[in-house]
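Notes continue from the previous slide.

Worked example: a multi-chain complex. Inputs as given:
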Amino acid sequence: MTSRAPNTLPNGVFAAVLTPLRDDYSIDHEAYAEHCRWLLANGCDGLAPMGTTGEANSFSVAERIEAFERLVEAGVPASKMMVGTGCCSITDTVALTRHAVALGAGGVLMLPPFYYKNVSDDGLYAAFDQVIQRVGDARLKLYLYHIPPMSGVPISHALIGRLIRRYPDTVVGMKDSSGDWNNMKTTCEMYPGFRVYAGTEKFLLPILAAGGVGCISATTNITCRLAAEVYAKRATGEGQGLQQTLTRVRDALEKYPVIAALKRLTAERTGHEGWRLPRPPHLPLDDARFEALQADLQKLGFVAP
Amino acid sequence: MTSRAPNTLPNGVFAAVLTPLRDDYSIDHEAYAEHCRWLLANGCDGLAPMGTTGEANSFSVAERIEAFERLVEAGVPASKMMVGTGCCSITDTVALTRHAVALGAGGVLMLPPFYYKNVSDDGLYAAFDQVIQRVGDARLKLYLYHIPPMSGVPISHALIGRLIRRYPDTVVGMKDSSGDWNNMKTTCEMYPGFRVYAGTEKFLLPILAAGGVGCISATTNITCRLAAEVYAKRATGEGQGLQQTLTRVRDALEKYPVIAALKRLTAERTGHEGWRLPRPPHLPLDDARFEALQADLQKLGFVAP
């Protein structure tokens, strides 16, 4: 590693981008790029494709590489993307990370190896260390992905500290999807300058006040305009009021299987039925639940875009 | 699917085969085949390569395909192998399963897609259904892999029933690594003829008495001779006594990080230092713990082979 690369990822509102499928469960690249452009035109400062919401782990490495390549070819700016690259196997994580960096990704979002549970911090450190060494590229900007409800493998504050000390120009931030406000607040306090994104827009203003840089959320696929307004007015009383509305909308969406619900809402917005389909083990939202969801949003006066 | 294939996997004692590595964490194919042959010559009726103990999910699909291919080329009988093929992505699971079946594997051991937690039985059914349909090969003998402590995704009795009814000649058995005796006993009772292997040799005689067919275990990489003796004498009082010894040895081994401990013991047996190394997030067993383990085994009068 020879020279330091600047951080190119913006602060603010990111969507954990949904991945549209064709009938045979392959990725619909055209609809994917279109959705990315729509998100950037409707309030998103940046994008996080191939995260939990993007069903990343439901695709093979080859499918993920092609998906990112096609997005970049379609003109979605790589510098605004934090691409999910963390797999169970360091071999796969290295392949995806190298590819993302080579194409100019602003950052990568890296799960710890997540099959084995109750592994030691020493073991997780060894895994991240191997990946960084093997990628061997000073342009790499790595964001740790802390999402214990799915991964089952938390990233401790001690581990963050150790990685930052060893790789200060590489391990630059985190997405905290624990849902645990105290955990993200403590990270901001312990490691000033470390770029913490909350994993939900519920904590958009709180995380900014605590020293974090923004949010990366599943539901901003739908709430992006409102979230952007909250972010723009973050220093004002109006911003605080809008945050309350945003939080209530998020709470309403959270009651449904979130990937299926967001895909169904996106199918409505775009008029493209194909959007409804997630890959198994997820299933499309049925009509009854969709109607209930619409009623819930209506009660809040939220008009889905 | 045109013709039914017979079940070729034996009943009895299986090892969840350890995967030896070279210094650069690549698979040591020669040591792997040698260990497989040693296990079959030292009490194992069958082998389960690329399971949890084999660090399967720490390797890429390409690495796993090469590993199985090299084993078969080296003369390890495919018909005695239940090969781990379950990944987070159905794309990957299909690729691995097709390959295993094409090479004549006696069965495949299939995890459910394990990244997403709290998914519905309908969603898991859809995932297995997709895989079976896409593999589209009547030779496929699928064993469900129930290991909630690692996968976080249990396979319910209702789901088993539904899969058996739809695919009676394909979904033929299960490895139950829940550690929950009642769960495996109930499976045997509910689905007679369904081939249940206990995920630990502690339950070898109990599972046989309940109608199951054997055990597939991490620790039989070390206890294979004793486990084979228990199996051979299963109808006798001596077998019951030996089961107690076997259980105590298993309990002793379980107190240590099991992959690292078993690899260290195998390094001792073979005189091949390379055996000590697991892939991150696992780490080699340090000397202090290894000495403690040896002392524990000695107290039980167990001589590791």
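Summary box: The beta strands of chain A are 12-16, 46-48, 82-84, 107-110, 142-146, 171-176, 195-198, 214-217. The mean pLDDT of chain A is 97.
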